[in-house]
Amino acid sequence: MNGIWLEFERPIVELERKIDELRGLKGVDEEIERLRVQAEKLKRSIYSNLTRWQRVQLARHPRRPYPLDIINLMAEGFVELHGDRRFGDDHAIVAGITEIDRHRIAIIAHQKGRDTKEKIRRNFGMPHPEGYRKAMRIMRLAAKFKMPVVTMVDTPGAYPGVGAEERGQAEAIASNLFECATLPTPILVIILGEGGSGGALAIALGDRILMMENAVYSVISPEGCASILWRDAAKNKDAAEALKMTAEDMKAMGIIDDTIPEPVGGAHMDFETAARNIRSAIVSNLDELTSIPVPDLIEARIGKFRNMGIYKG
After folding, report:
1. Where are the domains of the chain?
2. Architecture of domain 54-306
3. Which distant-in-sequence residues (6+ apart) come within 8 Å of 224 by Cβ?
4. Most exposed of 39, 74, 159, 262 (fewest Cβ within 10 Å)?
5. Percent helix / strand / coil, the chain, rounded to 5
6. pLDDT at position 1, please?
7. Confidence (pTM)
8. N- to C-terminal Cα distance for the chain?
């Protein structure tokens, strides 16, 4: 194991430790194999019966791959572009140009940090307005040069600080939604980890929306929901169940188009496999989207979002 585990993973950790202790000893090969088979069965049993709150925990796992991890594993070079040309460069949003298979694309993504210094620099993956304006600048650039846009969403939400509000946080998000609706190039969205509120939606309006198997997508966090409804953040598990924020829930409600499978135990167990699965999904979807005439693409994109939800007069 990688040294960081969740409560429901402890039985697996204990088996892995036993296997590690036996390695190097003579005459225990059969016992090691028996424990390995037992651990594999236990993994499949646990991870195929996760609660919604456990999915939230996996989506937030500190060892889960972030966009730059995935980009570096699946893309043929990545040229990062900086700044919104108005205020500054927001490190919570990474954006740039790369090539995947035969597709030259623009990638825009939220980026969290691993250690304390990097978390502060990336603002814990919570963008300021200049981050969203940088995202839109790169989207316009992609449309100009007829490149598809791929976005990777992983944020608890937009940064709610005073400075962000003074610089037009709500306007920046709203402008992105408005412009993405008619952006004349294919847009593929991948919910990689946390898809939190408008902070996620600002780069998540696209022609196809995919979610990683253990990602979550919601208008509010379980803790925030519990604090509002029950005045008790400790009721986060109840809130997670009520919000129905998992990939399975989102697909059943028609919010997303498909899910991307993760390695057994979650993407944090095997970055390479997770990256291969994402690359495969990107290539297959872009092959289809790039064959659709732009006017038809925009019409279908607008219709897709207009048809979401239920309205009762």
Report:
1. 17-49, 54-306
2. Alpha-Beta Complex (3.90)
3. 233
4. 39
5. 50, 15, 35
6. 43
7. 0.90
8. 53
